[in-house]
Design brief:
By secondary structure, this protein is mostly helical. It has two domains: 29 residues; 90 residues, Leucine-rich Repeat Variant (Alpha Horseshoe), CATH 1.25.10. It has six helices and two strands; from the N terminus they run E-E-H-H-H-H-H-H. It has a two-stranded antiparallel ribbon. Helix 2 packs parallel to helix 4, helix 3 runs antiparallel to helix 4 and helix 4 packs antiparallel against helix 5. It is elongated.
């Protein structure tokens, strides 16, 4: 299995205690959710997308601000779409406000805006009454 530094994403030996590229300590970065949140900054968009997807499945409110940061960044539109969907799955007032802002933001791609609007209105998810 390939191991990466959670700080700079350089490939590292699984037994290493310090990243040879950035010199960061490679101690366990915390909970599974914390690792997924860190993966939202991975240089590979597919890894970011998978992390956002799993955060949506877990519905952990501690991920809302990190997912909001993805939507505010110049990330890949598919990653942003997955972040919007995850926010809809997590729900709550803050997630709904973020989705509303994204849906109304003309600087976002039309795909992300429409997904944010649709996600906000799904039954049982953010912004719904049912």
């Amino acid at each position: 299995m390939t191991t990466y530094c959670p700080h700079c994403w350089a490939e590292v030996d699984a037994a290493a205690e310090v990243c040879p590229a950035c010199r960061a300590r490679l101690a366990d970065p915390g909970s599974y959710v914390a690792k997924l949140i860190a993966a939202l900054r991975h240089p590979e968009p597919f890894t970011q997308r998978r992390a956002a997807y799993v955060l949506g499945l877990l519905r952990d409110p501690s991920a809302v601000e990190a997912l909001a940061a993805v939507l505010a960044s110049p990330a890949d539109p598919y990653v942003k779409g997955e972040a919007a969907h995850a926010l809809g799955a997590i729900g709550g007032e803050r997630a709904d406000a973020i989705l509303r802002d994204v849906a109304d933001d003309p600087s976002q791609s039309i795909i992300v805006r429409r997904l944010a609007a649709a996600t906000r209105d799904l039954p049982g998810e953010a912004g719904s009454s049912g």
